[in-house]
Amino acid sequence: MGAQLPLPLKERYMSNQITIEDVANALGVSKTTVSRAISGKGRISASTKAKVLEYIEKNNYKPNVVAKGLAQRRTFSIAVVWPADYSLVDLPFFQRCLVGMNEVTSGYGYDIIVSLVNGDDVSNLKRVIENRKVDGVILTRTLIDDKPAEYLEQSGVPFIAIGASLDDKVITVDNDNFDACMELTSILIGKGQSKLALLGGSQNHMVTRTRYSGFAEAYKRAGKEMDESLVFLNLGNEHRISEIVKQLAQRQVDGVICMDDHLAGAVIAVCRAEHIKIPKDLRLASFYNSSFLENAVVPVTSLNFDDRNLGAVAARMLLSLIDGEEVESQKLRNYEVIMKESTK
C-alpha cells in the first residue's frame, strides 16, 4: 500500500484530529498566534484572539494534552495514594472520594493514577514520582509515623493529605471527625448512657487518634469520668473482637461505639452468633456510616459524612497548589448524626 495522504480538514474534524496548524491555515494566521490565543499568553490583539476562540469552539478543537503538557512542563495527571491494606468495607470510602476528585480533575483535563502504598513501602509511589508521571499527589490516609508524607515532603512534589497530620507543614483536608465524634458521644451520654465502650483500629492511623480525642472530650464536657478499661484499640482480629463483645455484654455496659463501619459490622456478626440482641442486650453506634450499616437488621446509630465532597475539595486544593497558589488546610463540617434503633 502507498503512504496515506493527510485527511481533508472536514474529515479530520469528524475524526477529532483537527490541529493548531489546521486552525491557523483556516484563519490565515500563524500557529504561534493560535497557540497564544488558546493559552492566553503572549501579545495578540483582542479581535484576533476572539476570532481564534470562536473558530475552535465552533469546530470542537481540543488541544493535544501531550503537547500542552510539554509546553507547560506538566503531565496533566495526579496520583491518588490508597493504602494497600484496605478492606472491602473501606473500599466505598475511597471510591466516593475518587468520584469527587475525578469530577474536579476531568474539568481541568487531568487524569488520575491510583498508587498503592503498603505500610512503610513507598516504592510504588516513588516510581511514579521519580518517573515524572504526575504533577501532584493526594494521600487518602494519614499516619502517626507517616512515611508516605515524609517521602513526598522530601521529593518536593505538591501534595494534599486527607486526614489530620502531626506535621504542620503538611497541607490537609478532613471531615471534622473530632467534633462529629464528640457530638455523637455527647448525645448518648445525655441519654443516660455514660458507661460506653469504644472499639477502634490501628493507633498509627491519625483518624483513630482524632476519634478517640472526640470521644474523650465528650466525657470531659459532661463532667463525667471515662472508663479507660472500656477502650479497645488496634483491633483487627475477629476472635479478639468476639471475646471483647462477649465480655462487654456480661459487664452490662450502656453501649458500644465502634470507630468505623467495619468494626460495627464485626460486632453485629458476633451478637448474631452469640444471641446477643441489639439494642436490648447491647446498644451499638458507629463513628462512620455505610450502606452495610444502613441495611443491617437493626439500623445503626452513626455519623454520615460527604466523602464525595471531601474528594472534590482535596482535588481543587491540589490543583491550586500545582498552579503555585497559596493553599491552607481545611476542616469540613459537613457531617450528620443519625440516631437509629440500635441505641434506643
Describe this structure as you would to a colleague:
The chain is an alpha/beta fold. Helices cover 45% and strands 15% of the residues. It has 14 helices and twelve strands. The strands form two sheets. It has a six-stranded parallel β-sheet with strand order 2-1-3-4-5-11, sandwiched between helices. Helix 12 links the parallel strand 8 and strand 9. Helix 3 packs across helix 4. The termini are far apart. The N terminus is likely disordered.
Could you give the order of the helices and strands? HHHHHEHEHEHEEHEHEHEHEHEHEE
Number of strand elements: 12
Unreliable residue runs: 1-16
Major sheet attributes = 6 strands, parallel
Structural class: alpha/beta
> Biggest sheet, strands in spatial order?
2-1-3-4-5-11
How far from one another are the termini?
Answer: 79 Å
What value does the average pLDDT take? Answer: 86
Beta strand %:
5-15%
Q: Tell me the helix content.
A: 40-55%
